[in-house]
Design a protein that fits this description.
Number of helices of chain A: 2
Strand order of the largest sheet of chain A: 4-8-9
Helix content of chain B: 10-25%
Order of helices and strands of chain A: EEEEEHEEHEE
Strand order of the largest sheet of chain B: 12-13-14-15-16
Largest sheet of chain B: 5 strands, antiparallel
Oligomer: heterodimer
Shape of chain A: elongated
Radius of gyration of chain A: 17 Å
Distance between the termini of chain A: 26 Å
Largest sheet of chain A: 3 strands, mixed
Number of strands of chain B: 18
Order of helices and strands of chain B: EEEEEHEHHEEHEEEEEEEEEHE
Structural class of chain B: alpha+beta
Largest interface: A-B, 64 and 59 residues
Chain lengths: 91, 217
């Protein structure tokens, strides 16, 4: 693995010696999504309040994933599959 | 999520042990350094009720919080997500000297286009009535605070002027922006063409786009 600094296409200098990590332990626990529910059903059953802040990832009109902003501040990453296609959301 | 750099979390893919910038999708460290994720779209912010209205086919995923997650949500995460923000020590310790042109935790919309990147502080957008027309690189852009989500959005436009009428944004091209769609004078409608953008804090955008421009009214 190259240890010399790398300049990204946006001009950010990445100095590998400054990358902070926690050994081999992940710093944040990813959310592996196995189950989703239609947003209409969730609201109808009051699973979450209607003013809950959500993050929305739109692939197309029929492939839209919504995630709780507060939960994503904990996980930072959610990943799963939709129609057999893998996806990952980062926050 | 394996690491932190400049106060930002960094993704690692476990197959190649490469690190990826989540904003641009560029690999910044490891065997795939310099490569680009093929498709990066940016998250939109909405209250749940608005998601149901705008995206009736959306599906919600909720995790089952354990004790650690519940405690952190109560003690730390709410502060982190507040407008004022809060950066825990583990994040701030990874930061180099930041760009001091704006307060580190200020919220705003970062927008980029080949050859140009600009940060629109929320304070300045609100002072301009919540909508501005600007030029970024070779593109004319409309930046506005979406009345439904209360978060900022940047889209491509041909207009030179705009004004609010209720929750509609009227453009001098006779077009109307409503629900992130562009209504044409002939009655047709199409989704607003969004530019690459991120609703974020100043420190993160300035670190990712060093020397970025700041919106000046």
């Amino acid at each position: 693995m190259a240890d010399e600094p790398y300049v990204t296409k946006t001009g950010m200098v990445v100095d590998p010696s400054r990358l902070k990590r926690n050994g081999e332990t992940l710093m944040f626990t990813p959310f592996t999504v196995e189950l989703t529910e239609p947003i209409g059903s969730v609201l109808e059953h009051r699973t979450i309040p209607p003013d809950t802040d959500l993050l929305v990832a739109v692939r197309d009109d029929d492939r839209v994933i919504a995630l709780s902003r507060q939960q994503m501040a904990y996980h930072h990453v959610a990943q799963g599959q939709l129609d057999g296609e893998p996806w990952v959301v980062f926050f | 999520m394996a690491g932190l750099y400049n106060g930002l979390a960094v993704m690692e893919d476990v197959q190649t042990r490469s690190y990826w910038d989540h904003v641009t999708g560029e690999c910044i460290h490891g065997p795939l350094r310099g490569q680009q994720l093929p498709r990066v779209t940016h998250l939109r912010y909405f209250p749940a009720r608005a998601v149901e209205q705008r995206y009736p086919n959306a599906r919600l995923a909720l995790s089952r919080p354990g004790l650690r997650q519940r405690v952190l949500q109560r003690v730390v995460l709410r502060r982190m997500l507040s407008d004022e923000g809060h950066l825990p020590f583990m994040f701030s310790a990874s930061m180099a000297q930041g760009d001091t042109r704006r307060p580190a935790m200020e919220l705003g919309l970062g927008v980029w286009w080949p050859g140009a990147s600009r940060f629109y502080p929320m304070e300045r957008l609100r002072a301009q009535g919540g909508a501005v027309i600007d030029t970024l690189g070779d593109r004319r852009v409309l930046v506005f605070v979406d009345p439904v989500s209360h978060s900022p959005v940047a889209g491509h436009t041909q207009a030179h002027d705009c004004r609010w009428q209720g929750e509609d944004l009227l453009l001098d091209t006779k077009e109307i922006i409503r629900d992130l769609h562009q209504l044409q004078p002939d009655g047709s409608t199409h989704p607003l063409e969004l530019l690459p953008q991120l609703f974020t804090r100043w420190y993160g955008f300035a670190a990712t786009f060093p020397g970025c421009e700041l919106y000046e009214p």
